[in-house]
Write a structure and sequence with these properties.
6-stranded antiparallel β-sheet; 5-stranded parallel β-sheet; binds adenosine-5'-triphosphate; 2 domains; Rossmann fold; globular; Glutathione S-transferase Yfyf (Class Pi), Chain A, domain 2; alpha/beta
Length: 423
């Protein structure tokens, strides 16, 4: 699968952009701040519904506008063509279209185009706080599990409603009859557990799929270090109790982790009952803080090296290689599951990485059907690499020229209207 055309309207810095691309390597080059990352970020958002550098839709929409549109023509494995389009709204629901048809949900488009992006700050996946690892697992989930994105959206919605109710309870005056609000909270808590558990089990399955290739690829990148592990750490500890994945912190590690497909209906009912019980214990604290104190929005993925937490112990170089192995593991799992190579994005990786890592990433990417590379200066292009070159400064100038034309057209129309009114 590969892209042949990308069109953006009011996405980040781009009022309008239209680029035609070919399979193989496409290099987007130009000075800092021209909008190169914005272009590849649009591909990532179209593929996964999210961006690794934005937590909401607002920053993705051009400043002062209400809506951003990303459109791409894709050639599928059977050589047919599909046009995918998503519209991100500053207010209200985001929408999507396939082949210019009727408006559909974002979830109908998300996951259709397999894309994995590599960036120099990927090592933060290992060293920084859990929200980055949750973003990674959400993107992986959107690509690997057709239900994942919809479950995540519903969970976030219910989590928001539940917080609103907790805050209402927090601010009730003494003597106020709170029984109706409590009843309401009970209903939302039930839904929160239901959706939260589905999300937790989906995430567990994704980490289960990634675990073996991650360890193997890390070993290959480091010429034989087999100690790298990823372990899912769900906020709903009740799931882990039911499906233990041993960490090397506590002793010997079992290569065979438990996937969510091994969990029976009986297990699920018992996990739900235990989570409900947990909520009863923390309920007063939730009201006091006005927050959902447990749930997948507090999950983490532990990354270990030599039995220690990589977040605390890994060197910069090790952290970068761990992150690289994680992204490459996702590519491998996607490839096996979809029988098609994912599209690869290498965002500004060449200028900032040492020669060894540049070579590792290039060797990997050069075998893929389509690769997008952004770079400030063409001199960073590895010697002998054949690529389609896109001058982003020229794209930006064309955009300014078309804005100018549009403005002149508007002014001309206004003058015409005025003179007609006077006549
Ligand atoms: N929502 C937005 N509306 C308007 N402009 C935006 C928006 N979001 C980002 N920008 C602008 O986009 C520009 C950055 O674009 P981008 O990150 O793609 O640059 P780049 O070409 O990749 O640069 P570098 O080589 O430094 O990484 C900045 O000037 C920023 O102000």
């Amino acid at each position: 699968m590969y892209l042949t055309r990308l069109a953006l309207d009011d996405f980040r810095s781009w009022q309008n952009l239209l680029i035609d691309v070919t399979p193989g390597i496409t290099v987007l080059y130009g000075a800092n701040g021209l909008g190169k990352t914005n272009i590849v970020e649009a591909i990532e958002v179209l593929a996964t519904g999210t961006s690794h550098r934005a937590h909401s839709t607002i920053p993705l929409i051009r400043a002062g506008q209400q809506k951003a549109t990303i459109r791409a023509n894709v050639i599928n494995n059977d050589e047919s063509q599909t046009t995918y389009e998503i519209s991100l709204a500053a207010k209200g629901a985001n929408r999507a279209r396939i082949n210019g048809g009727k408006s559909v949900y974002m979830r109908d488009v998300v996951g259709q185009i397999p894309v994995v992006a590599f960036a120099p700050d990927d090592q933060q996946l290992v060293t920084q706080d859990p929200s980055l690892r949750r973003s990674f697992i959400n993107q992986a989930g959107a690509l690997l599990n057709p239900d994942y994105y919809a479950i995540l959206q519903q969970y976030m919605q219910v989590a928001k409603q539940r917080v609103a109710l907790l805050k209402t309870l927090q601010h009730q005056d003494e003597g106020f009859d709170i029984s109706a609000t409590l009843q309401n909270l009970e209903i939302w808590t039930g839904q929160f557990i239901e959706l939260g558990l589905r999300l937790t089990l989906a995430r567990e399955q994704i980490i289960h799929q990634l675990a073996e290739p991650f360890t193997r690829i890390y070993s290959r990148l480091t010429s034989g270090d087999t100690s790298a592990r990823i372990i899912y750490a769900p906020s709903f500890e009740e799931v882990q109790e039911q499906t233990p994945q041993e960490s090397t912190f506590q002793g010997s590690y079992h290569q065979e982790t438990v996937g969510s497909e091994d969990i029976t209906e009986h297990d699920i009912q018992s996990i739900k009952a235990n989570i409900s019980e947990h909520f009863r214990r923390i309920y007063a604290g939730e009201v006091a803080r006005g927050q959902n104190l447990i749930g997948p929005h507090r999950d983490d993925v532990l990354i270990e090296l030599h039995g220690f937490s990589a977040k605390e112990y890994a060197s910069n170089g090790e952290a970068w290689t761990l992150a690289l192995a994680l992204k490459m593991a996702l590519c491998e799992v996607l490839e096996q599951q979809l029988q098609s190579e994912p599209i690869i994005i290498l965002d500004d990786v060449f200028a900032q990485l040492d020669m060894n890592r540049r070579e590792q990433i290039m060797e990997f990417a050069q075998q893929k059907t389509q690769v997008f590379i952004t770079m400030a200066a063409l001199r960073d292009l590895p010697d002998g690499m054949e690529a389609q070159l896109i001058d982003v400064e020229r794209c930006a100038q064309e955009q300014i020229a078309s804005q100018h034309d549009e403005m002149m057209h508007l002014v001309a129309n206004m003058v015409k209207q005025k003179s007609q009114e006077q006549a």
